[in-house]
């Protein structure tokens, strides 16, 4: 296939990617049984950054199938990146893959892990497929063609709600693998401002409805696309955690932003931010006579970032 893709090519690639996600899902389920029996888990950067042989095996399976079907496409995968295969991102069609997103859940038997398959085309997230085989939930999207769950239900399934302020928000956040005092301090102060009660000694507190820490960045994006979470913020994710989710969330009316500085200026995510490791995603908002969805998204992200102390992820 030429490296210039037609719409027909993209349609075929989406079909291929969905089938590949389901095939990978079978291996993830097999791996879950094996790992829960063997407890054979290794550490990467530290004791909370986990990997199993199945992370590697699923990536090998996926990489092999992509090489067979699309030999000219580039491939960036979490496990091969960790092993030193780090191709430079070019305009060529590039699969950006997390074989198991939510490895901590995977090793605990918490049924919230997935494969995340993103296709970057001309550096832009263009196709996204995220499959949780434990719950048989498959999210898919192509740029300009909508986002779906299980290929039938277009997202969001319900009309987007208004978003008056952060106070009404249910927010995805994660613990991450950097547990240093400096990062934990910034994180907990950030969370205190977002969740704290201004009437009870937290003057800057927004008293948001709550946080959810579900353990998979890709599935957090899908939850935002579905309107189950209002937003999700994390520092420290990698392109393979978000490439597919970005397409799914945007196609469901959501918007993605980067770091605090660019977001408070109202700048939405652009392709040069893919490796920025600071991402925030927000659901679509009902248009009102006073404010369009895109304006409401910027307003809420700005409010969110007024609570955030950022750090640099090593
Ligand atoms: C991680 C998960 C986790 C998020 C981390 C990711 P992994 O991916 O998505 O929820 O907090 O930033 O690295 O290690 O399970 O593939
Ligand atoms: Ca992973």
C-alpha end-to-end distance: 38 Å
List the ions, cofactors and other small molecules found in this model.
D-MYO-inositol-1-phosphate, calcium ion
Query: Could you say what the CATH topology of the largest domain is called?
Result: Fructose-1,6-Bisphosphatase, Chain A, domain 1
Oligomer: single chain
- Looking at the overall shape, the CATH architecture of the largest domain is 2-Layer Sandwich
Overall 3D geometry? globular
User: What does the main sheet amount to?
Assistant: 7 strands, mixed
Class by alpha and beta content: alpha+beta
- Helix content percent band: 25-40%
Q: Please indicate the count of domains.
A: 2
- pLDDT < 50 stretches: none
SSE series: HEEHEHEHEEEEEEHEHEHEHEH
Query: Count of helices?
Result: 9
Mean pLDDT: 97
Q: In what range is the share of β-strand residues?
A: 15-25%
Gyration radius over CA: 19 Å
* Name of the level-1 CATH class of the largest domain: Alpha Beta
Q: Order of strands in the sheet with the most strands?
A: 3-4-5-6-7-8-9
CATH 4th-level superfamily of the largest domain: Fructose-1,6-Bisphosphatase, subunit A, domain 1
What is the total tally of β strands?
Answer: 14
Organism: Calocera viscosa (strain TUFC12733)
Binding site for Mg(2+): 78, 98, 100-101, 241
GO molecular function, one term: metal ion binding
Catalytic activity: a myo-inositol phosphate + H2O = myo-inositol + phosphate
Characterise the protein shown here.
- The protein has 314 residues and is of the alpha+beta class.
- The protein is 37% helix and 20% strand.
- The strands form 3 sheets. Strands 3-4-5-6-7-8-9 form a 7-stranded mixed sheet, with helices on both faces.
- A hairpin with a 3-residue loop joins strand 8 and strand 9 (153-155).
- The radius of gyration is 19 Å and the shape is globular.
- The model has no long low-confidence stretch (mean pLDDT 97).
- The site of D-MYO-inositol-1-phosphate has 14 residues, from strand 4.
């Amino acid at each position: 296939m030429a490296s210039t893709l037609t719409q027909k090519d993209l349609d075929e690639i989406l079909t291929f990617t969905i089938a590949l996600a389901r095939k990978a899902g079978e291996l993830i389920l097999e791996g879950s049984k094996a790992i829960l029996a063997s407890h054979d888990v290794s550490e990467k950067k530290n004791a909370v950054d986990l990997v199993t042989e199945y992370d590697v095996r699923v990536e090998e399976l996926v990489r092999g199938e992509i090489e067979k079907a699309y030999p000219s496409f580039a491939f960036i995968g979490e496990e091969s990146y960790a092993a030193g295969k780090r191709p430079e991102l070019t305009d060529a069609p590039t699969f950006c893959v997390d074989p198991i997103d939510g490895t901590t859940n995977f090793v605990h038997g918490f049924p919230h892990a997935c494969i995340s398959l993103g296709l970057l085309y001309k550096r832009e997230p263009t196709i996204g497929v995220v499959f949780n085989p434990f719950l048989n939930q498959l999210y898919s999207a192509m740029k300009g063609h909508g986002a779906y769950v299980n290929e039938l239900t277009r997202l969001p399934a319900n009309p987007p709600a208004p978003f008056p302020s952060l106070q009404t928000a249910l927010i995805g956040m994660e613990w991450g693998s950097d547990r240093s005092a400096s990062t934990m301090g910034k994180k907990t102060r950030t969370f205190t401002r977002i969740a704290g009660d201004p009437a009870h000694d937290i003057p800057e507190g927004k008293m948001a409805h709550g946080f959810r820490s579900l353990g998979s960045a890709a599935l957090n994006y899908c939850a935002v696309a579905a309107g189950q979470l209002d937003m999700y913020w994390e520092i420290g994710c990698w392109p393979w955690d978000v490439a597919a989710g970005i397409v799914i969330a945007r196609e469901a009316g959501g918007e993605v932003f980067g770091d605090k500085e660019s977001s408070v200026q109202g700048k939405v995510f652009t392709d040069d931010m893919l490796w920025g490791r600071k991402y925030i995603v927000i659901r679509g908002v009902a248009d009102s006579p006073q404010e369009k969805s895109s304006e409401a998204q910027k307003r809420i992200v700005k409010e969110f970032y007024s609570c955030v102390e950022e750090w640099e992820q090593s």
